[in-house]
Amino acid sequence: MLIVMFVIAVLIVLFVPNLMKQTGKISSDGDIALEKVIEAQSEMYFLENNKRPETTQQLVDGKYISKEQKKKADELSIEVK
């Protein structure tokens, strides 16, 4: 029984740090994806309105992005280009 617990403990020690690294990478990839969404929706806004949006709020008002996306973009200081 003690050997089984030891093996489980060793496996946990080996796998938990790797899982934590993957969580950070997923978060980073999500931030990059959001930036690309903001850029793409900004272009869509431009094509439909013949002017560039000045703020992410204009994208929300035009239903190009969600309020949650705007909130996250503001947290990450992603600006409309």
What do these coordinates show?
With 81 residues, the protein is an all-alpha fold. The chain has one domain. The chain is 78% helix and 0% strand. It is built from three helices and no strands. It has helices at 2-49, 56-61, 67-75. The longest helix has 48 residues, at 2-49.
Topology readout:
Elements: H1 2-49, H2 56-61, H3 67-75
Main location: membrane
Protein name: Competence protein ComG
InterPro entries: ComGC, Pilin-like
Features:
81 residues, mainly alpha, transmembrane helix, membrane, ComGC, methylation
Q: What is the helix content?
A: over 70%
Q: In percent terms, what proportion of residues is strand?
A: under 5%
Poorly predicted runs: none
- Helix and strand content put the structural class at mainly alpha
**How widely separated are the two ends?**
61 Å
Q: Write down the domain tally.
A: 1
The overall strand count is 0
Shape: rod-shaped
User: If helices are DSSP runs of H or I spanning 4 or more residues, what is the number of helices?
Assistant: 3
- Give a short account of the largest sheet: none
C-alpha-based Rg, rounded = 21 Å
Q: Helix-strand pattern, N to C? A: HHH
Mean pLDDT: 91
Précis, in short:
This protein has 81 residues and is mainly alpha-helical. The chain has three helices and no strands. One of its GO terms (cellular component) is plasma membrane.
